[in-house]
Batch of 2 targets.
Target 1
Amino acid sequence: MESSSHTGADAAVQALEDLKTDIEGAVLDTVDAIDEYRIRYLSRKQGRITALMKRIPDVAPEDRRAFGQAINSAKDTVERRLEEATAALTTAASATSAPADVTLPGREQPQGSLHPITQAARLITRVFENYGFDVAEGPEIEDDWHNFTALNFPPDHPARDMQDTFFIEDAEQEHGGILLRTHTSPVQIRVMEDIMKDGEPPIRVIVPGRVYRNEAISYKSYCLFHQVEGLYVDEGVTMADLKQILHAFARTLFGEDVRMRFRPSFFPFTEPSAEVDIWWKDENLPGGGRWMEILGCGMVDPNVLEGVGIDSEKYTGYAFGMGIERIAMLRYGIDDIRILYENDVRFLEQFS
Ligand code: PHE
């Protein structure tokens, strides 16, 4: 019993010594050698370190602690050698690989760009900022009052049907219904309400934003799109001011020689109202081009001013609203609005 336990202990100590020698001696110069080394020593099932651990009971109780520590330090050695060998191999690989061929074409880094709608919106906004307009924004989820009533759409008047509305809570509700705004014009009301809390006109804002209409989707209409609204209220603002600024705007966007026309129209919140067309040159068309509508505009209806507490005897104003997609499509020669919403990178890349 005594002697057999001695023999067991001696064998275990010998196995530890062999292990140390083998660990130090192994040559680790290939990926395979490194892998094999890792498995041989560290494998939890068949590794030699695990095997040695199992022999701890063979060692005399007073020597077990030192024996265990020696195994641990052998294990540390294995791990250190693995790390060093891997690092050495990686450096060797990069050092011996062919030197960089500087004549090779560079690897292109894909770079994003602003969406054409964003670009057009910023361009339009910037033009009016240069004329002293401030940028304002309003909520896309709007109440019936701001979207329609305050803009002089009479209740149950068919004018409300001009814009197919997505209702969130229907109009029978006490507050008159909640909806997705169908245009940016409700922001006119919000801006005027805001200023009138503790001020007076002049008011001069430009309002870019997203709007929603429940329309059949086609190449020219989508269920959401973007508009830019403009509003200027001051003493003595006239239709001539409106025409002047819109003409200046069209020249900036479409060139000095742009042809534009004002066509009488109707909006409940402006009187008189007009739509503005620009002449779109196209050789393929019979007349060499055609008129394209780009915006609606007019003099702010006195009812609208009075509704937010602005004295319509003292102040007048103009307002306009344009579809950004329409402008972007004209500027960039896009013939189907839906492509603006597909996020096809091949299309978007062209605008970087
Ligand atoms: N809000 C109108 C529309 O969406 C455009 C408009 C804005 C007309 C301002 C007149 C004045 O069609």
Target 2
Amino acid sequence: MILEKFNLRGKIALVTGANTGLGQGICVALAEAGAMVAGAARRGCEETASLIAPGQFHAIPADLLESNAHETIVAETLARYGRIDILVNNAGIIRRNDIADFTEQDWDDVMQVNLKSLFLLSQAAARQMIARQSGGKIINIASLLSFQGGIRVPSYAASKSGVRGLTMEMANELAPHGIQVNAVAPGYMVTNNTEQLRADPLRSRQILERIPAGRWGVPADIAGACVFLASAASDYVTGITLPVDGGWLGR
Ligand code: NAP
């Protein structure tokens, strides 16, 4: 039955950036599809927990700017649930400035959270998937700037293009182990990440005019793509970056 293939009952998912925005929407969607969800974030995940059935969500406080955070997150997930079937690398930050004024710190922080920690978490999750010979799913949250350059966001553009390349690389290496690695590239979504853009009347109007769907996205819009890529329905899909952008890239 095709619908059964989308069912995540009995699966253990780990989602980073779980307390708000897209990460919160992903946690809720995976839980609704049946998974037990471990959610990592710096700030508390109480709001996310309140949207999920009691006992189906476990919060892990962690700061991905700290060099060993990935080890803590994976160790705590394994201690709680015994394994990881689905990893969603969602946590991400953006820093905006002109190239001439862009600081090394803004380069390093964005690369650390968006790209380096994504690799280290994927590596740790893949190690235990390989050891258990269970297969698994890794989903990276990319961006339109995995395909385009953007403006005033050099470290973000570099990190998100890196996410797309790394998604393909990991897909190639992990396919023989039954692990599919894919990415979702959200368009312009209403979250903290785009607060500055939405507060700028000119940029906000320009962006909206270019979205064929005629509206900004919301966290629930990427839920279907994530559940699909987390489920057996996508077992022959690997290495792709799937835009969920209201048609932006096609325009
Ligand atoms: P958001 O509302 O700003 O959420 C970002 C999440 O990442 C938060 O949960 C945040 O936790 C977590 N995070 C940031 N720094 C962290 C750190 N050092 N350690 C641990 N967690 C950290 O943004 P969002 O829009 O939901 O973004 C989610 C993902 O989608 C990001 O990768 C972003 O680049 C990507 N994306 C967003 C859009 C968009 O339009 N919104 C478009 C394309 C791609 P804290 O709150 O605790 O810091």
